[in-house]
Every structure is written in structure tokens, then in C-alpha cells.
């Protein structure tokens, strides 16, 4: 097949709330009939859906594929999603959608914050935090591992790293839930949430400019004020992205990891009995059912042919990481969770120039959260029907009640 699809009969429709939330519909991503299929994005735009491992991996690294949308496309999409006009500049200037030269300039500023040495220095703080949260749990009662463990770990670590004050942390989760949805956001909820996020970041930047601290926002403010590497809009946009990514991705990584281990007792026993191998286990948990199912949309800078399908110049591309990580042509028995899997080049943190800078920190937080809880409560068990609390393909675990003993 070459040329364009029949867009009246899409196979993957992200604008349909039933498709997004239905488990059976979501499973179709992993069994797509070909590497490239016709789809529809949440804002109604046509999109080329790419699901096979080799195709997804190659497009992550393909310089003919750009994260920077054609002129006006991203702005129009945000308007359709309900982003207020006065805030568009902050969500159109993110590191995720910049042209390559701007991306490299801004990316170099944050790689230091997530260096191996920085992550290693954070481990004692993460371990103390996990211990404190475990101390607060009632061993005899029911505990929600999302609200009582995964959320406070992810929120505290990223907010302390950046310098987000305590008073904003719980509120940020509510704002986040209004924004990070695959369906069209509620027009009554989204604008005030976005205003809250932007206004808070602007206040934090002003506070760190007046009184710098030992945090990433202070470092970025100094760079912005003393060099030409970051302007004020880019500064606000960068902080927004870092808080959002650090909070949501890690919270879901920890929650999904616990869920999948609790419903696979044989794998749970392996993790408990070999805590020294938990990093390898986390990689497999991310492959099997990680929090990032789809990458941000890409665009073809020139025509690209994949398996006989031609994606035209400016065509929107949706790389489905969740499907690629379960491609039977790349992974043996992909729907089997195997925490001892050694050959595991999963794509949950993307690849190429846009590989997630916080990947090592997210892995460390998940590893520590698992080991700490299983060491304290080795007999922990799920206290709800797995079908009731389990994830759908594009919706993560939001509640995870457990009995600790």
C-alpha cells in the first residue's frame, strides 16, 4: 500500500473516549495489522499510527522526523483542546516541540540536573522518604499505594529537585489530571488548571530570582539572567515540563510496577528474593506495561516510506511505544512478564535526541520504592479485584488498595 489512507475508516481513534478507556480496544494496538495504520488524534487530526518495534525505534532516531510541528499546527491543536490564548506561548515553546538547534541548546542545560552523579546523590533522600511513608502506614488496615506511597514519592523528589514549595504540591496533581488526558479536556476545568500551573511557576521563578536556593529553578534562573541561553518564556515552559514529567511519569511507573507484580506472584517472589536485580526488573516492568504508551506526536519533514506506506511531508506521526515494547518480532513472549529478561532494549523512555533525561531518576525512584516496601512488608497483597483497579491501555492505575500483612 502506498499513498494516503482512507481516513473515513480509521483503525485507532484517540478522539473516542470509549477507545481510550476500553481495555479490549486498547489491546488492538499490540496486534495492529501492519506497521503503519490510519488513526485520529484526540483533537480530531489525522495521524499515521506506528506500532512495530523496528519502525518506532528507527523513527525515534530519524532526522527526517521532527518534534517541531509545521507552522501553526501545534497552536491550532492547543486551541482545539481549550488552552487559553494568553497561555499558548508557554505551551508552544517547550523542549518537547522545539526545532533541533533550540532543543540541543535547552537540553544541555538540564542534562546536568539528571546526571548519574546527581541521581546517586539523591538516593539517600529517596530511601529516607520511602521509610517515612512506610512508617506512617497502618499495617492492620487497608493502604492505597498510589495516594499513600507512589504519589508522595514522585511529587516530593521532583519538587525538591526543582525547588517547588510544599504548598503547591498537592494542588499540582489536580491541575495535572485536568491537563494530561487523551480525551478532550473539560472546558470548565482546563483553563483554570493551566492558569494555576503557569502562575505558580512564574511566582516560583520570581521568588528564586529574589532569593536563590540550592535547586534547579534557581540554577535555571541564573542561566536565564546571565546568559542568552534561555529566555523568560522558555524558562517558564521548561519548569512546567519538568514538574509535569517528574510527577506523572514516576507516579505511574511506581503504581504500575506494584500492580503488575502483585498480579504475577511468581515474578513478585523473584523481586523480593533478589533485590539486587530490581533495576533489571524495573526495565521489564516498563516494557511490559510502562506509563508512557505513546510518544508525543512527530511530523515528517519530508516524505517517509515505511513498509509500503508513504507518510507525506508534514504528516503527523504517532509512535506507539506500548505496542513496540510488546512486538513479538522483537521480544520473545512479549505478553509474559519476565523480570529476569536480559535482552530488553525497551523504548519506554524514547530514544535518540529526545531520550528522557530523567530516565535514571525515574528508574531509581521505582527501584527504591519496590525494595523498601517489600523488605518491610513481604506479604503485601492486593485488596481489590484486579479488573476493577487495573490499567487500561491509555489509562494508568489511579487507586491500588493493598493489605500489608
Automatic annotation (TrEMBL):
Signal peptide (residue range): none
GO MF terms held by the record: heme binding; iron ion binding; monooxygenase activity; oxidoreductase activity, acting on paired donors, with incorporation or reduction of molecular oxygen
One Pfam match: p450
Membrane spanning stretches: none
Alphabetic keyword roster: Heme, Iron, Metal-binding, Monooxygenase, Oxidoreductase
Cross-referenced PANTHER family: CYTOCHROME P450 YJIB-RELATED, P450, PUTATIVE (EUROFUNG)-RELATED
Family per similarity comment: Belongs to the cytochrome P450 family.
Name this protein carries in UniProt: Cytochrome P450
Source species of the chain: Streptomyces collinus (strain DSM 40733 / Tue 365)
Designated gene of the protein: kirOII
Amino acid at each position: 500500500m502506498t499513498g494516503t489512507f482512507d481516513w473515513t475508516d480509521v483503525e485507532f481513534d484517540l478522539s473516542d473516549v470509549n477507545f481510550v478507556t476500553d481495555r479490549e480496544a486498547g489491546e488492538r494496538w499490540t496486534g495492529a495489522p501492519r506497521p503503519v495504520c490510519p488513526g485520529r488524534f484526540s483533537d480530531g487530526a489525522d495521524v499515521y499510527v506506528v506500532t512495530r518495534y523496528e519502525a518506532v525505534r528507527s523513527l525515534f532516531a530519524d532526522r527526517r522526523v521532527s518534534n517541531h510541528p509545521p507552522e501553526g499546527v501545534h497552536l491550532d491543536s492547543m486551541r482545539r483542546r481549550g488552552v487559553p490564548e494568553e497561555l499558548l506561548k508557554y505551551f508552544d515553546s517547550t523542549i518537547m516541540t522545539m526545532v533541533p538547534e533550540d532543543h540541543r541548546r535547552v537540553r544541555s542545560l538540564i542534562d546536568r540536573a539528571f546526571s548519574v552523579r546527581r541521581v546517586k546523590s539523591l538516593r539517600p533522600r529517596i530511601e529516607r522518604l520511602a521509610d517515612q511513608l512506610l512508617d506512617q502506614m497502618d499495617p492492620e488496615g487497608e493502604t492505597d499505594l498510589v495516594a499513600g506511597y507512589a504519589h508522595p514519592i514522585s511529587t516530593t523528589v521532583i519538587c525538591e529537585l526543582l525547588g517547588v514549595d510544599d504548598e503547591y504540591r498537592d494542588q499540582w496533581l489536580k491541575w495535572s489530571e485536568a491537563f494530561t488526558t487523551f480525551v478532550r479536556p473539560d472546558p470548565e476545568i482546563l483553563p483554570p488548571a493551566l492558569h494555576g500551573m503557569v502562575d505558580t511557576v512564574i511566582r516560583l521563578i520570581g521568588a528564586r530570582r529574589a532569593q536563590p536556593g540550592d535547586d534547579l529553578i534557581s540554577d535555571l534562573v541564573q542561566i536565564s539572567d546571565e546568559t542568552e541561553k534561555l529566555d523568560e518564556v522558555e524558562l517558564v515552559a521548561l519548569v512546567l515540563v519538568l514538574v509535569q514529567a517528574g510527577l506523572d511519569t514516576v507516579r505511574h511507573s511506581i503504581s504500575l510496577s506494584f500492580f503488575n507484580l502483585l498480579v504475577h506472584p511468581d515474578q513478585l517472589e523473584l523481586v523480593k528474593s533478589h533485590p539486587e536485580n530490581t533495576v533489571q526488573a524495573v526495565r521489564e516492568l516498563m516494557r511490559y506495561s510502562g506509563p508512557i504508551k505513546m510518544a508525543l506526536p512527530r511530523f515528517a519533514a519530508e516524505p517517509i516510506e515505511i513498509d509500503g506506506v508513504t507518510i507525506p511531508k508534514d504528516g503527523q506521526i504517532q509512535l506507539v511505544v506500548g505496542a513496540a515494547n510488546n512486538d513479538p518480532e522483537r521480544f520473545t513472549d512479549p505478553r509474559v512478564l519476565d523480570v529476569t529478561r536480559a535482552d530488553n532494549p525497551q523504548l519506554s523512555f524514547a530514544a535518540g535526541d529526545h531520550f528522557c533525561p530523567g530516565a535514571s531518576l525515574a528508574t531509581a525512584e521505582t527501584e527504591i520504592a519496590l525494595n523498601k516496601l517489600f523488605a518491610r512488608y513481604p506479604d503485601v497483597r492486593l485488596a481489590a479485584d484486579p479488573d476493577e483497579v487495573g490499567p487500561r491501555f491509555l489509562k494508568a492505575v489511579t487507586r491500588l488498595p493493598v493489605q500489608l500483612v
